[in-house]
Each structure stands twice: as structure tokens, then as C-alpha cells.
Design a protein that fits this description.
Helix content: over 70%
Structural class: mainly alpha
Radius of gyration: 21 Å
Number of domains: 1
Strand order of the largest sheet: 1-2
Shape: globular
Order of helices and strands: HHHHHEEHHH
Number of strands: 2
Low-confidence stretches: none
């Protein structure tokens, strides 16, 4: 009798695991296809120090993500000017990129100036319309969108221009591999939830998986001919990136949870929207730039 019960449980467990394995396989194949396409684009882009193809690709992704952000805000009843948000965000990214490729100009002051002018422009529009009720929410949500996406991701341009394709590949591979490690380890071994009120699927095991994968990939890349970090420093970098990727993911989950959304959009079937694809990179980009800059000052970067 007990053998029959055990067999029944085993069959039930196998049936439960089958759909999960299928979903993970589909997600992995889509992810591999995206990585291959991005890798091909980066290989072509390596011909230019300025990263023209990188800038065009990233700008397109940011514009799509800003459109999703506008829909998310409107779902919460926050009235944002979609066109102003999207084109203003695109202008911010372009200004930063131009600043990175022109050291005499620099990315900081022009971007800050443009951000201030656009924010004041939003308030001026509210004054002209005489709309008092939601002025703070609409202006604040739009300014957050600009800071959250183009400004944060603008640091990735600094990595691309200053440390070349090697730096950009290091950032993206460590970031995305840590996220994949969190997903797979959490799916198979995750039991204790990390912050269930914000992201029910994030687990403590997933955090461990992210750290282990991110540190391992970062360390492995430090042995390649085009490395920019020595092994021990690469381990530290992998740990920082893995934690930053988790925080970035949770930050976007917080916004989606408030809007009662599972995905930010449907641009990437099986994965979600563009914001879902970029969420882990958002905090990783400025942290990576700062980390590489400190390593440069300490003369430990290749």
C-alpha cells in the first residue's frame, strides 16, 4: 500500500515538474536567441570606438521601455504625457552618449541641465493648463521615468566608450548570467521566499544562485585575453553586480505590483516587456561604471 502511495506521489511530482521544465526550456531558447543576436550586433559594433550600433540599439530599447512605463503609470491613474516622456528620455540618453564620446563636453552637466529644463517644462505645461489636482504625481512620475531608464542606462554608454567592448560584454554577461542563475536555482531549490509581498517567485536560494553564477562568470572572464579585471577583483565585481541585479529586478517588481501587472509588456514573448529585460541592468550600469573607475584609479584594471 505504501509503495503505491509513494509511486503516486512520484508521478504527481513528475507531472508538476513537466510544465515547469517546458517553460524553462522555452525561456532558455528565447534567451539564447536574443544573446546570439545581441552578440552579433556587438561584434559588428566593435569596429567603432564610439559604439554607434550600441547607441542605436540601446536608444530603441529605452524608447520601448519608456512607452511601457507610460502605460504602467496610466494604469495607476497617473496622467503622464507619453510623447514628452518618450522623446525627452531619448534626448537624455543621446546627450549622455555624445558626452561620453566627447570628453571635453562630458556627460554630466549637459544631461543634468536637460533634465532640469524638461522637468520645469512639465511644470510649465501644468501651469498653462491650470491643472492643479495631479500636478505633483504627473510631474514626479515623468521625472522618475527619465531618471529610472535613460539616465541610469546612460552609464552603460560610459562603460562602452571608456573600456570598450570588453567592458560592455563583462557587464552584460555577468549581469544576465547572475539573473539566469537566480532563476534556475530558485526554480529547482527555492523554498523560502525573499520578499513575497513584492516578488513571490524570488527566493533565498535564487539569491545564492545569482551570487554563485555571477562570481563564477566574472572570474572566468578574467582569464580571457581581453580581460579588464584580475581574478580576485573580478570575484568582488561579480558579487556586487549580482546583488545590484537583484535590487534592480525587485525595484521593477515593486512598480508592477502596484499596478497589478505580471509583466511590463508583451514585447518579448515568454519573457515579458522591455522593462523586464532591462530591470536587472538598471542599477548594474552605474555601479559597474563606478567600480571600473575606482579600479582605474587604483591601477588594477586592464
Amino acid at each position: 500500500m505504501s509503495d503505491t502511495i509513494e509511486k503516486g506521489r512520484a508521478i504527481a511530482e513528475q507531472r508538476l515538474k513537466a510544465p515547469k521544465m517546458t517553460a524553462m526550456l522555452k525561456r532558455s531558447l528565447r534567451g539564447a536567441g536574443m544573446v546570439a543576436a545581441i552578440g552579433l550586433a556587438l561584434a559588428v559594433d566593435s569596429s567603432w570606438r564610439q559604439g554607434y550600433l550600441y547607441a542605436a540599439t540601446m536608444l530603441t530599447m529605452i524608447l520601448i521601455a519608456l512607452d511601457e512605463y507610460a502605460s504602467l503609470a496610466q494604469r495607476l491613474g497617473i496622467r503622464v504625457d507619453r510623447a514628452f516622456l518618450i522623446f525627452g528620455g531619448g534626448a537624455l540618453f543621446i546627450v549622455q552618449w555624445i558626452g561620453w564620446i566627447n570628453p571635453a563636453w562630458g556627460p554630466g552637466m549637459p544631461a543634468i541641465t536637460l533634465l532640469c529644463l524638461m522637468t520645469m517644462g512639465l511644470l510649465s505645461l501644468r501651469v498653462a493648463d491650470g491643472q492643479i489636482q495631479d500636478a505633483l504625481q504627473a510631474t514626479g512620475a515623468t521625472a522618475l521615468g527619465w531618471l529610472y531608464l535613460p539616465v541610469m542606462l546612460g552609464f552603460l554608454s560610459g562603460v562602452r566608450v571608456r573600456w570598450g567592448m570588453a567592458g560592455l560584454i563583462l557587464v552584460l554577461l555577468v549581469c544576465k548570467s547572475s539573473s539566469s542563475g537566480a532563476y534556475f536555482v530558485g526554480s529547482f531549490f527555492g523554498k523560502r521566499r525573499l520578499i513575497p509581498s513584492i516578488s513571490p517567485n524570488k527566493t533565498i536560494a535564487g539569491v545564492v544562485g545569482a551570487l554563485a553564477t555571477g562570481m563564477a562568470v566574472s572570474c572566468l572572464l578574467s582569464f580571457l585575453p581581453w580581460k579588464i579585471l584580475p581574478p580576485l577583483v573580478a570575484l568582488l565585481y561579480g558579487a556586487l553586480v549580482s546583488l545590484a541585479a537583484i535590487v534592480g529586478d525587485l525595484g521593477e517588481s515593486l512598480l508592477k505590483r502596484q499596478a497589478s501587472l505580471k509583466d511590463s509588456g508583451a514585447f518579448l514573448p515568454g519573457i515579458g516587456g522591455m522593462m523586464d529585460m532591462l530591470d536587472d541592468v538598471l542599477l548594474v550600469a552605474p555601479i559597474s561604471f563606478l567600480f571600473f573607475r575606482v579600479c582605474e584609479i587604483l591601477n588594477v584594471i586592464g
